[in-house]
Amino acid sequence: MILAVAVHVPVSFGMTGALIVLDDLESGTLAVVRTSPLGMPRYVAYRLTAVTVLSAAGLAVAAPLSGLVPASATGALLLAVLLGPLMTVATLAVASSRVQGATADKILAAARLPAGSGMVAHRGGRVAARAAADVLDRAVVAGPRSS
Predict the structure, then answer these.
(1) pTM of the predicted structure, to 2 decimals
(2) Domain regions of the chain by residue span
């Protein structure tokens, strides 16, 4: 049960963060961000930071309220916080629309990301964030796909 609480909260925030970015992509907001001084890497960093902070806050509230997580599991909860931004990056790496994002989220959440945990291994996640920014940048340049 500890795993259920520790994984569910950050994964939920990660899914939501990815769907917000994909919504921005489909609405054309990212085209504006791409040409602004903010740029895509800072936009992605902002979104990933927000997901990380919300995941930490969510776990700080949910873990004690559930009564399932002992105080000795604090270290595991700190590691679980990273599942939020990891879920966001993993979803953005494979999806280019909200529908694809929702599908990817369901598949990735069902698998609980066992093989994807190495994505944030280099330089504190900057490689993964840069890869997500590059994928979004290419999607903005390509424009919306016709259904």
Answers:
(1) 0.72
(2) 2-142
